[in-house]
Amino acid sequence: MRRLTIQQQFTNSSLKIEDIGKVPLPPSYEEYTKKRIMEIVKRGTGGGWEYDEEIIPGIAKWSGIRYFLGGFYKTEAVREAVDSLLQEGKILEVWWHDGTRRKEAKHWVILPGLLDKLPGIHRIRGRQEIIPEELRINKT
Questions:
Q1: For residue 137, is pLDDT > 80?
Q2: How much of the chain, in percent, has pLDDT values that exceed 90?
Q3: pTM
Q4: The domain containing residue 90 runs over which residues?
Q5: 20 lies in a domain?
Q6: What is the pLDDT of residue 8?
Q7: Measured torsion, CA atoms of residues 31, 37, 41, 45, in degrees rounded to the nearest 10
Q8: Which of 24, 125, 126, 128 could share a disulfide with 93, CB 3.0–4.6 Å?
């Protein structure tokens, strides 16, 4: 905490300014990016500009993360931050298809324990001990 104290000495009519404390250094770019991604995932997103999708706290579409982070964040930095969060076991990365005619599977980042909210998962990335056993059997 920073506190600024001003003392006046009237005997010699000089003004003394005292500066106590130190402003903490800001977090590194990587740490701040990870923090922002976790905030977005915990809040949940529909899909960024695709607002027709239900917002579920703890589940964020990849494009929604990119949208809510803004243009300041480079794709490589987001990928590195997500990979770091995967290594730490804080999130899982999943791809699933909703059964529509869409060719691509949707790409999501979710908190562990919420896999049942996304039925039909086709691919999953995360720490082995976090992925439920039933999802690791017979998956290629």
A1: no
A2: 33
A3: 0.73
A4: 27-136
A5: no
A6: 47
A7: 170
A8: 125
What tokens were used for 97?
Answer: 């298809």
DSSP collapsed to 3 states, the chain: CCEEEEEEECCCCEEEEEEECCCCCCCCHHHHHHHHHHHHHHHCCCCCCCCCCCCCCCEEEHHHHHHHHCCCCCHHHHHHHHHHHHHHCCCEEEEECCCCCCCCCEEEEECCCCHHHCCCEEEEECCCCCCCHHHHCCCC
Backbone angles phi, psi at 21, to 5 degrees: 95, -175
CATH number, domain with residue 119: 1.10.10
What is the predicted pLDDT for the residue at 52?
60
Amino acid symbol at 96: W
Give the count of domains, the chain: 1
Domain assignment present for 49: yes
CB 42 within 8 A of CB 111: yes
Choose among 86, 122, 92, 128: nearest CA to 106: 122
Q: Which two tokens stand for residue 46?
A: 């529909």
Pull the structure tokens for residue 52. 């027709």
